[in-house]
Amino acid sequence: MSQATLGDDEELFGEAANEMREDVESSLEEAWDALPSADDVWETDADNVLGVLNGLNSALDAGDAEDHLRDAKKWFTMGQRADAFEDADDLEEEIANLGEAIEDISDAGEQVGELTSTIPALRGTLEDAGPAEDEAETEDDADEEEAESEADDDADEEDEE
Length: 161
Prior knowledge:
Elements: H1 3-34, H2 38-42, H3 49-59, H4 65-81, H5 89-128, H6 133-160
């Protein structure tokens, strides 16, 4: 091989290393963008708990972030093995941070999913608990009639005096 060819190979390798880093950075940026925003997770327009949980469950979707993270890891691993990166600590740290964020979102989504299926059953249990609704209404009506009767008796006594 001639000296010119070796120089060209080094230059090509340098270009490839730069492109690989750009690919990793681009995939990381796309992954961060695919995550839900803090406001999407925090704010709600729901009228009840089930609506809040359903909205939160929808918001806790990492979307394409996992695919973009996988691409970033793939190019990062290839670049590391080829010793193409001069300093890759920042990329490695960002990949780890993104992975943790996606895992947290996934864990929260699972917990919300469990609550979403539990809350309606709990509501039904609470509605069915205690005296039947008709009995409760009958007792309330009887209490009201008794109070009215006592008030009428008191008024009659005042009229007699």
